[in-house]
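Please, structure for the following, as tokens.
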Amino acid sequence: MKDFLRIDGLTVEYRSGNRRVHAVNELDLQVGEGEVLGFVGETGAGKTTTALSILRILPDPPAKVLGGKVIFKDRDIFQLSEREMRAIRGEEIAMIFQDPMTSLDPVKTVGDQICEMILLHQHCSRKEAWQKAGDMLETVGIDRERASEYPHQFSGGMKQRVVIAIALSCKPALLIADEPTTALDVTIQAQILELMKELKKEYQSSMILITHDLGIVAEICDNVAIMYAGGVVEYGNVYDIYKDPRHPYTQALFDSIPDVHRIQDRLKVITGLPPDPTDIPSGCPFHPRCPHCTERCKTEKPEAVYLNETHWAKCFHAREGRNDNG
């Protein structure tokens, strides 16, 4: 599968006075054409910062890209002009932001907001754009007659459908979905996920799904990137990651999921806390919380250990397999 998005050594920090928050640290990532990548990690791991870097919409200041490349269709987006980037945003790469409540303009009708995206990237009349906006609303399960209504007239689930309609209005090659179901109840979550699966089949778009919900990843994704302290610590297809996780952090994430088939007095938790992003630990960033930590882990940063052609983990003990006695 050809990589049409590749991130090499991306490093981003946020600066506030003398404080330096290390948000993304030498991150490497690939997304193939037509692939859905699950981007998983705890809050603060750097997932959203990575997404904003791809679109080049990081707030500057305080954010600063210190190094790395984002190659999209053989172009390094950091080398493009702002005019070239505006042509890419929305038309080739679109994003569904985390909170639909704040993603929509409250003083514009939903139809106008979809039209705005269409008119920005496509050569058509206002009448044609309005027709396409209605078509997009129907695609996401909303009557076209509601195009003249305002965001406050829609429920949370409906607002998220409108946001998806805006993102897909120009049929982008890459769709980034940042926690698209977080603010929704379980029933609406299921509807949105089913909608996204149907739209992926229809538009053949690649997708980066940012989430902390491993159940969603199993249902919709092809490959999975596990992120910790600003970097990817394990990468592989869904089967490899779920059946044979090799990084202790990945194993701990799965262990913390309740097992409905077993009686448990207490849920397993990951000991300790995520590292302070202003003071990332030396060596392996997970070593203060790792049950298999050695002296080498404290001082030396692990490189990717390939377990097969597509599955790798950044851990000195990755080849030893799972140790359930740790």
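The two ends are 37 Å apart (CA to CA). The first helix runs from residue 47 to 55.
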